[in-house]
Design goal:
The chain is of the alpha+beta class. The chain has two domains: 3-40; 47-101, no CATH class. The protein has three helices and three strands; from the N terminus they run H-H-E-E-H-E. Strands 2-1-3 form a three-stranded antiparallel β-sheet. The radius of gyration is 17 Å and the shape is elongated. The two termini are 15 Å apart.
């Protein structure tokens, strides 16, 4: 799915919600499905990765050029600075996880 198709599908979901044809839960599911489809068919130099492990990051999906970059993006998208020099949170409190290509 290309970006324009994804945007159109999200707009369609929002329009149906605004018109009362669907409820919020259905709209959320539809928008999430569009995003998931777009991300997993992402066509570019980067790959799509999913975090597997600690509940704080498990299931996070990111687009990145490599496994190390994917790990950093997973941490960043979950509010954890992977390069925080003062150790906040401490290294032993950081989530334990792996990333796998989707």
């Amino acid at each position: 799915m290309d970006r324009i198709s994804a945007i159109r599908n999200v707009e369609d979901a929002l329009r149906k919600f605004e018109d009362g044809e669907t409820d919020l839960a259905d709209t959320e599911r539809r928008v999430a499905a569009v995003l998931r489809t777009y991300a997993t068919s992402f066509d570019g130099d980067d790959d799509v990765f999913r975090a597997v492990g600690d509940d704080r990051v498990d299931g996070s999906v990111v687009v990145a050029p490599s496994v190390p970059a994917a790990r950093e993006r997973v941490l960043a998208t979950n509010g954890i600075d992977p390069n925080d020099a003062d150790g906040d949170p401490p290294a032993d409190d950081r989530p334990a996880f792996e990333v796998e290509r989707v």
